Amino acid sequence: MSSPKGRVLIVAGSDSGGGAGIQADLRTVSALGGFGMTAITALTAQNTLGVFGIHPVPPEFVARQMRVVLDDIGADAIKIGMLGSVEIVEAVADVLETIPDIPLVLDPVMISTSGSALLDAPGVAAMKKRLLPRTLLLTPNLPEAEALTGLKADSLAAMEMAAGRLVELGARNVLLKGGHLVGDALIDLLVGKDGRAEFRHTRVDTSHTHGTGCTLASAVAAGLARGAALRDAAAEAHDYVQRGLRNAPGFGRGCGPLGRGAP
């Protein structure tokens, strides 16, 4: 008997405010019909106003969490978010080398919504060297793409160039998020070996955008885990995030979380 589909292993940090990180990832995967498992890379003390502390998990324990889940339950897709250090990047990469056939969605979390640094320069270098070549889909925002490529991505044409460079660096496909561009039109660009697509939406007038990147990447991973094609999984993920922005509950005094629920 074949195993049921929909298993997503999430490797990311915990958000004590519940808006992003592991908490957002699990709710997203569940809402989209998947089963989420976790390898937690760090505990954070944060809320809608910012990040007030980070407590990393030892790298060997991050790897152990991954291995015991994979050895028993298995996974149909893997989503990686906040890693936090070069040591954790290396530990995660070592595990991934043993499971080359499971599709990987990598959200290169480097800077929090409030501006806190979440991965240092050696960690970024290790990510480029060891994780990008293993990645089916990389989901950077514009500042992250600029940090990875050195290219300014301030227009659709510049986004094309930056996404192309990231494919050259090893990622099979790149979903470059254009939310930092000025204007009411939002354009996310999917470029890579599996084709090209644009996802266009009108910007939702809300300050409650905490966890959009985590949610989008996890939603794509949930679709892939159920057997969807990449472009279909990305389209479903965008629709889910848009609903979350429109239905944000308004919690907190700062950048609050998205609304959650069934698709």
Descriptive keywords:
263 residues, alpha/beta, nine-stranded mixed β-sheet
Elements, N to C (H/E): EHEEHEHEHEHHEEEHH
Tell me the radius of gyration.
17 Å
- Helix coverage percent: 25-40%
Number of helices, counting only DSSP H or I runs of 4 residues or more: 8
Summarize the biggest pleated sheet.
Answer: 9 strands, mixed
Strand order of the largest sheet: 3-2-1-4-5-6-7-8-9
Structural class based on helices, strands and sheet pairing: alpha/beta
In one word, what is the shape? globular
Our measurement of the CA-to-CA distance between the termini, rounded to an integer number of angstroms, reads 29 Å
> What is the averaged pLDDT score?
91
β-sheet strand percentage = 15-25%
Structural summary, described in words:
The protein has 263 residues and is of the alpha/beta class. The protein contains eight helices and nine strands. Strand 4, helix 3 and strand 5 form a beta-alpha-beta unit. The longest helix has 17 residues, at 230-246. The protein starts with 6 loop residues before the first strand and ends in a 17-residue tail after the last helix. The model has no long low-confidence stretch (mean pLDDT 91).
